[in-house]
Write a structure and sequence with these properties.
heterodimer, A: 538 residues, mainly alpha, globular, B: alpha+beta, six-stranded mixed sheet, five-stranded antiparallel sheet, 8 helices, 21 strands
Chain lengths: 538, 343
C-alpha cells in the first residue's frame, strides 16, 4: 500500500470548551483496567509508611534512614549538576559554534544512551583493578594500575557519564530554536557577550534545564544496578540488601515506601513542569550566528568532546569487547547468551504488544474526552513510570504474595508489571498519533453508518497504526534493559540478558557479563539511534 | 386545509450550551423535503452547532429533532449518528487519508451493492477516472466532490454541508458551488448548507434561514429575504443597504429620497438598496455627489441629501459622476420597518 500522508487541509480546532459526546462506559472500564494495576503497588507502599496505628519500620533506625537520605541526596545533587554542565556544554558546542562536524559530534554524545548505567558500571569495573583493560594498558607502559572503581566517586562518574546525554537531547532543540534577534538586541543595547549569555540565553534555556534536571534526578534516585555494582549505598541498594538478606519483607517495604514518597516530590514537580519547555521557547525565524572558536578554545572544545566520547562510549565498548575476546580465547562457550537474548526479546515483545494495545483506550479517553478523571489516569500511569522500579517491583511482589499467589513468580506478573511501568511510553506515542487524526474523520465515519467500534477498526486504528508500532518499539527497548523490577519479579531460573549481566558482574564473571552486555547494546543500538537522530533533526 | 408535507428535518426548541456560552437558544427549523436550505449567519451564531446536533455528533441540552417524521432526539430518545441516515460534508472534507477515492465513496454502503453504487456516485460527481487515487493526490475541488459522493452514496434522507466551499480559492469557489448545487438537485436529496457568505447563500439555495445568537431570525426564499428583510440587521447582513427615517401617513411614507407606498403608520425606517437608486445629473438637483468608487463593471456613488442623510447608488460604469456633481435622486422600491420603540 502507498504511503499514507495526512490530508493537505488542517482540520479546524474545536471551539474552546466544546465537549464531545460522552465516552462509552466500555472505554472507561478498559482505560481504568489498564491503569489501575500501576497504582496498586504504589498505594500499597505508601500505605505501609503512613498507615494509622504506628509505622512498622522493620527495625530501620532513624539515623540509618538519615544516612540513606544523605548518601542518596548527595548523589542526586552532584550527578544532576554534573550532567547539566556536560549536557549544556555539548549542546552549545554542537549548535552554536563553528566546530567542524557538529551533527556528527551531537550524535556521538547522544549514543551513550544505548549503554544502560549498570552496563556502564560493569565496563568501569572491567577496566580497573588488577585485571582491567585500562590497568593492563597502564601496566604495559610502566604506569601504576587503576584501583577498582567503587564508592561515591565511581557512582557519581557512572551516573553522570550515562545520563548527561538526556540533558544534551533536551537542551539542543531549545538552543537551536532560540531566536537570535533577542541576543542581537541585547548586544545592541551595549551588553557584553558574557552578560548576554547570562541575562538572555540562560533564562530562555531555563525550562529545558529544569526538565532535564528533574529527569536526571529521577534516574539517579531510581538507579539500582550501577550503585550496587559500584558499591555505593543508596536507598535502592539498601532495599535490595534487605530484600535478599531476610525472610521478613517489612524493612524492604518500609524503605521502599519512604523512597517512593521522596521520589513523588520529584515526580510531581516533573509532571507540573512537563510541556512547559516547548511552550517557553519561541521558534527562531533564522538560525543564530555561530560563535567562532579558534586557537586554544577550539582545541579545548575538541579535546573535551573527544574525552567525553572516549569515556562514555569508546572505553566501555572496548572493555566489553576485550573481555569477550578473553572469554573466547579461554574457550568459554557462550551458548546460554542466545537463550537469554531470546528470553529477553520474547518477554519484551509480549510486553510491548500488550502495552501498545492497552495504551489505545487510555489514549482515546485522554485525547478525545479530556477531563479530570482522564487526566488523573494519565498522571497515575506517569507516576508508576517515573518512580523507582525497584520499589514498584517490590510492591507488585508483595501484592501478589498476599492477594494473588497464582501469579507470584510468573511471567504473567512480570508482563503486568512491565505494562504498568511502561504504559506512558506507548501512551504518548499513541496520543500524538491520535491528535493528528481529526475528529471529523471519526464523525464522518459515524454519519456513514459505522458505529463506535466499526469506526475504531476502519478509521482510527489504521491511521494510528504507525504510532502504536513506534510506542511498542520504545517499550520493547525499555523492557530489554529493565533490571530491578525484573530481578524482583522474575520466575526462578528466568535468566534474561539484564539479569545475566547483573549476576555475572556481581560475581566478577566479567567475560560472561560482557558478552551479554554487548548483545544487549547491539540489539538496542539500532532502533535507539534511529529514534534519537529523528528527534534531533526534526 | 391540507396537511403540510412532512418536513425532511424539523427541530423544535433546540438549546445547546458550551460551558457558559449558549450556542443555540431555542432553534426552530423546518426543511421541506427535496429543498436546498442554507443556514446563514455570522460566526458564532450557532449554525455549525445546529448541523452537528442534527448529524448526532453532539447532544442538545433541550429540544427535539425529527428526521423524515422520525424523532431522533427528544425526551429519552437519542439516535446515534450512524443510524440517522444523515450525510455530512465537512469543511475540511474529512476524507479518509488511508483509503482510495472509491473506498472513500463506498465507505457507507453495504457490500452487495457497493461496487455499483460507487460507480454511480463517482459518475455523478465526474470522478470515475480517479477512483484509485488517494485523497492527497486530488485537487481541492476534486476532494470536495469525493466528499459529496461519499455522503450521497448511502442514499441519506438529508445531506449536511458545513461551510463546504471555504477551503477553495475564490476563482474555483463559484464554479464548484454551481456544480455541487447541480449534483444535489439531480440527486433529489434534501440538503442543508451552513455558510457565513450571503452571496453563497442567496445564489445556492431554495430557502435561507438567517441565524443570529443561536436563533433563526427569518426564513424565506432568497428574494424575499433580500427585498423584505425582517429587520435592519438582516437587511445589512444580506447586502448593502441605507436607512432613512420617515413618517407614514395614509399608506405613504415620505423621506428625503422620495415617497413610497407602504403599510403601517407613524415613524418608520426605510431601507433602500443601492441598486434600486437612480441618479440623474441635474443643475439644481437635490443631491450632491460625495464620493465615487469605480469598479469597472459598475460604480458606487455616495450622495448627500438636503437633510444631511446619505444614500448610495450602484450604477453602470457610465455616465461617470464626479465629486460635487448635483443630481436628482429617484428610488425604485424600498422596504420599511417600524422604528424601534415606536411600535
Amino acid at each position: 500500500m502507498a504511503t499514507v500522508t495526512p490530508p493537505a487541509v488542517v482540520p479546524p480546532p474545536l471551539a474552546p470548551g466544546r465537549k464531545r459526546r460522552r465516552p462509552t462506559p466500555a472505554l472507561w472500564v478498559m482505560a481504568i483496567a489498564v491503569t489501575l494495576p500501576g497504582a496498586a503497588p504504589i498505594a500499597h507502599l505508601l500505605w505501609t509508611v503512613v498507615r494509622p496505628g504506628g509505622i512498622d519500620s522493620g527495625g530501620i533506625s532513624a539515623p540509618r534512614l538519615g544516612q540513606l537520605f544523605a548518601s542518596t541526596g548527595l548523589l542526586v545533587v552532584t550527578v544532576t549538576a554534573t550532567a547539566l554542565v556536560l549536557g549544556t556544554a555539548t549542546a552549545w558546542l554542537t549548535t552554536r559554534t563553528n566546530l567542524a562536524g557538529r551533527g556528527f559530534w551531537s550524535m556521538l554524545v547522544s549514543l551513550p544512551l544505548v549503554i544502560p548505567s549498570y552496563v556502564g558500571a560493569l565496563a568501569m569495573l572491567g577496566s580497573s583493578g588488577n585485571t582491567g583493560v585500562v590497568s593492563v594498558a597502564l601496566d604495559a607502559i610502566g604506569l601504576p594500575k587503576l584501583g577498582v572503581f567503587s564508592g561515591f566517586w565511581a557512582a557519581w562518574g557512572a551516573l553522570s557519564l550515562w545520563n548527561f546525554s538526556y540533558v544534551h537531547l533536551i537542551t539542543t532543540p531549545a538552543l537551536a530554536r532560540m531566536d537570535p534577534t533577542l541576543e542581537e538586541a541585547s548586544r545592541g543595547l551595549g551588553a557584553s557577550s558574557r552578560r548576554t549569555f547570562l541575562d538572555v540565553v540562560l533564562p530562555q534555556l531555563r525550562p529545558a534545564l529544569l526538565s532535564s534536571s528533574l529527569l536526571v534526578g529521577l534516574y539517579v534516585i531510581s538507579d539500582f544496578g550501577a550503585v550496587s555494582l559500584l558499591r555505593y549505598e543508596t536507598f535502592t541498594r539498601a532495599i535490595y540488601t534487605q530484600f535478599r538478606g531476610r525472610l521478613d519483607l517489612t524493612p524492604a517495604l518500609f524503605l521502599s515506601g519512604v523512597l517512593v514518597m521522596a521520589a513523588l516530590v520529584l515526580v510531581i514537580a516533573e509532571q507540573r513542569n512537563r510541556g512547559r519547555a516547548s511552550l517557553a521557547s519561541r521558534r527562531a525565524t533564522r538560525p543564530a550566528d555561530r560563535v567562532v572558536l579558534g586557537g586554544f578554545p577550539r582545541m579545548a572544545a575538541y579535546g573535551f568532546l573527544t574525552a567525553l566520547v572516549i569515556a562514555s562510549l569508546v572505553l566501555p565498548l572496548i572493555t566489553l569487547g576485550w573481555w569477550t575476546v578473553q572469554g573466547l580465547s579461554l574457550g568459554n562457550v557462550f551458548g546460554s547468551v542466545w537463550a537469554e537474548a531470546s528470553r529477553s526479546a520474547g518477554v519484551a515483545l509480549g510486553a510491548a504488544a500488550v502495552t501498545a494495545a492497552a495504551a489505545l483506550p487510555v489514549a482515546i479517553l485522554t485525547v478525545r474526552h479530556p477531563g479530570r478523571l482522564s487526566r488523573a489516569l494519565e498522571a497515575i500511569s506517569w507516576s508508576t513510570y517515573s518512580l523507582p522500579h525497584l520499589a514498584v517491583g517490590l510492591g507488585f511482589l508483595v501484592l501478589s504474595l498476599r492477594y494473588a499467589r497464582g501469579v507470584y513468580q510468573t511471567v504473567t506478573l512480570l508482563v503486568i508489571a512491565y505494562v504498568a511501568m511502561f504504559l506512558p511510553q506507548a501512551l504518548s506515542a499513541t496520543q500524538a498519533g491520535l491528535r493528528q487524526v481529526g475528529t471529523n474523520l471519526e464523525d464522518a465515519s459515524r454519519s456513514l453508518g459505522s458505529g463506535g467500534l466499526a469506526t475504531l477498526a476502519r478509521v482510527t486504528i489504521p491511521l494510528v497504526w504507525r504510532s502504536l508500532l513506534a510506542g511498542g518499539a520504545l517499550v520493547f527497548l525499555t523492557v530489554m534493559k529493565e533490571l530491578p523490577a525484573t530481578l524482583m519479579l522474575r520466575p526462578t531460573g528466568f535468566e534474561t540478558l539484564a539479569v545475566r549481566i547483573w549476576s555475572a558482574s556481581s560475581e566478577l564473571f566479567y567475560t560472561q557479563a560482557s558478552v551479554a552486555a554487548l548483545v544487549l547494546v547491539g540489539i538496542s543500538a539500532v532502533p535507539l539511534y534511529l529514534l534519537v537522530t529523528r528527534d534531533l533533526h526534526r | 386545509m391540507t396537511e403540510p408535507p412532512v418536513a425532511a428535518i424539523r427541530t423544535r426548541g433546540l438549546e445547546k450550551w458550551f460551558g457558559e456560552t449558549q450556542a443555540l437558544a431555542g432553534l426552530d427549523l423546518d426543511v421541506p423535503t427535496g429543498s436546498l436550505m442554507t443556514l446563514l449567519g455570522p460566526s458564532g451564531s450557532g449554525k455549525t452547532t445546529a448541523l452537528r446536533l442534527i448529524a448526532g455528533f453532539d447532544r442538545p441540552d433541550q429540544g427535539t429533532i425529527d428526521i423524515d417524521g422520525r424523532t431522533v432526539v427528544g425526551p429519552g430518545v437519542f439516535v446515534p449518528p450512524e443510524r440517522r441516515r444523515v450525510g455530512m460534508v465537512f469543511q475540511d472534507y474529512a476524507l479518509f487519508p488511508h483509503l482510495t477515492v472509491s473506498r472513500n465513496a463506498g465507505y457507507g454502503v453495504a457490500r452487495p451493492t457497493r461496487a455499483a453504487r460507487v460507480a454511480e456516485v463517482l459518475a455523478l460527481v465526474g470522478l470515475s477516472s480517479k477512483a484509485d487515487r488517494l485523497p492527497h493526490e486530488l485537487s481541492g475541488g476534486e476532494q470536495q466532490r469525493v466528499a459529496l459522493a461519499r455522503a450521497l452514496a448511502p442514499d441519506p434522507e438529508v445531506i449536511l454541508l458545513d461551510e463546504p466551499f471555504s477551503n477553495l480559492d475564490a476563482t474555483l469557489r463559484a464554479k464548484v458551488r454551481g456544480e455541487v448545487a447541480e449534483i444535489l438537485r439531480r440527486s433529489g436529496t434534501t440538503a442543508i448548507f451552513v455558510t457565513h457568505d450571503q452571496e453563497e447563500a442567496l445564489s445556492l439555495s431554495d430557502i435561507v434561514a438567517v441565524m443570529r445568537d443561536g436563533r433563526v431570525i427569518q426564513t424565506g426564499t432568497p428574494a424575499e429575504l433580500y427585498h423584505r428583510p425582517a429587520d435592519t440587521w438582516v437587511a445589512s447582513f444580506l447586502g448593502d443597504a441605507d436607512f432613512l427615517p420617515g413618517e407614514v401617513e395614509d399608506g405613504v411614507v415620505a423621506t428625503s429620497a422620495g415617497t413610497f407606498t407602504t403599510g403601517g403608520h407613524g415613524p418608520v425606517t426605510v431601507m433602500i438598496r443601492p441598486e434600486s437608486v437612480t441618479l440623474l445629473p441635474a443643475e439644481h438637483g437635490t443631491g450632491v455627489v460625495h464620493r465615487r468608487e469605480f469598479f469597472g463593471h459598475d460604480q458606487l456613488v455616495t450622495v448627500g441629501l438636503p437633510d444631511g442623510s446619505i444614500i448610495r447608488a450602484r450604477l453602470g460604469p457610465s455616465p461617470l459622476f464626479e465629486i460635487g456633481d448635483r443630481v436628482d435622486v429617484s428610488v425604485e422600491g424600498a422596504a420599511t420597518f417600524p422604528q424601534p420603540g415606536s411600535n
